[in-house]
Amino acid sequence: MLGIGAAVAIVALLAGALHLRAALSSEPSTKPPIPVASVRFEVQDTYQRTVSYLGLVVAGRKADLGFEIPGKIATSPPRPGTPVRRNEVLVELDDSALQARRAATAADLEQVRIELELARLKARRQADLIKTGAVSQDAFDEVRLQAEALQARVDAGAARLATLDIELDKSRLQAPYDGIVADRYTQEGAIVNPGVPVLKLMETASQECHIGVSAERFAELRPGSAYTLQLRDKTIQATLLSVRPDVDPVTRTVTAVFALPADVAALDGEPVTLELQETVSQSGGWLPIAALLEGSRGVWTVLRLEPDGDNLRTVSEAVEVLEVQGDRAFVRGTLRQDTLVVANGTHRVRPGARVTAEALN
To answer: 35: pLDDT confidence band, cut at 50, 70 and 90?
Structure first.
């Protein structure tokens, strides 16, 4: 058994410990308030947002080129991707038969012209002799009419020669405009009929952008005005040429046609977007995205600040995110005008924490 002195010492020790614990618990906390960046919430009835509409880059002109006459292809068509100039000969047909026909027609025409010249000489001589009665009127009329018949044969021969020249010209397929060969459908030696496509040509200049716009917005578009387009990572200004007066049955949009600037290099069929600003009638305000905290069940919250003695205290407030633009979000909820909200660093503080507010730079 312990002695009386030892027991008294233990009791005194326990009493001292309890007294010290009570003294410590009664002392106020000396932890300083946490400094936080704050932003003032400003309520507004509307906000602006950017709406994008998707479209495609379209060549100003593109066509499947073919011959108007039948024949055998004598030259190899240019490969896809080959740039061509207007009136440049792309493909030729074998024109040996046409050349032979033209030579024969030209020879016949020359013969008829010689006969015509002889008939005219006879007519002029007999015109002088008929005055003296050496030649009858019937003989003169016969020679004169023969000359007129030969003139008609000359005209017909010249027309046939012109027709053959046209066919020879059509045996050469020429580029109707500056462009690039997009595809070729046949090769040298193939027999083609009139209208059968040989090449596909796309114009390199005067490219357009065809963009589908909602039926609700098309009335706001003004032909001749410049609009902002997004092509790849470039922002460009393009002039609106026209707006089609019908709705596409598949996309349910109205097609707006824009002129792509000549200094912008784009591929046919490449995607492009039209960016329009629209006003949304909705009450709320803008806050930095860094001010948002993801709560349970997908609910977003912010930490608003309210007075707490000489300092401020954080209070959790639920909000609904309506729009995100860059590093800010438009939210609505029960936040009042000019309410201070923790702008960032929300991971460092919890609801109920004592803080001091500093304006967000």
So the answer is: confident
In this prediction the pTM is: 0.63
Are 182 and 62 a contacting pair, CB within 8 Å? yes
Q: How far apart are CA 151 and CA 118, in angstroms?
A: 12
Q: Which domains does the chain have, with CATH numbers?
A: 34-48+281-359 (2.40.420.20), 51-60+205-279 (2.40.30.170), 65-201 (2.40.50.100)
φ and ψ at residue 84, rounded to 5 degrees: -135, 160
Quick one: pLDDT band at residue 131, thresholds 50, 70, 90? low
Residue 134: CB partners within 8 Å, gap ≥ 6? none
Give the containing element (helix H, strand E) for 97.
Answer: helix 96-129
**What does the chain come to in residues?**
361
Task: Give the residue among 299, 300, 279, 282 at the shortest CA–CA distance from 291.
Answer: 300
Distance CA 284, CA 272 (A): 32
Identify which of 60, 58, 64 has the alpha carbon closest to the alpha carbon of residue 201.
Answer: 64
- Region 333-356 average pLDDT: 88
140: helix, coil or strand? helix
Nearest CA among 317, 301, 344 for reference residue 34: 344
Question: What tens digit of pLDDT does each residue of 208-253 get?
Answer: 999 999 988 888 899 999 999 999 989 999 999 999 999 988 889 9
Which is nearest to 156 in space by CA: 113, 95, 97, 98? Answer: 113
Coil/strand/helix, residue 343: coil
Q: Which residues pair with 72 in a beta bridge?
A: 191
The pLDDT of residue 132 is 67
Q: Kindly give the residue spans of alpha helices, DSSP state H, lying in 130-241.
A: 137-170
| Whether 197 contacts 65, CB under 8 Å | yes
Q: Do 201 and 180 contact (CB within 8 A), yes or no?
A: yes
> What span, in angstroms and rounded, lies between the C-alpha atoms of 29 and 353?
13
Tens-place pLDDT, residues 169-200 = 999 999 999 999 999 999 999 999 999 999 99
Q: Which residues contact 265 (CB under 8 A, 6 or more apart)?
A: none
Task: Compute the Cα dihedral for 322, 328, 331, 337 and give only its sign.
Answer: negative
Going edge to edge, which strands form the sheet with 179-184? 62-66, 197-203, 179-184, 83-84
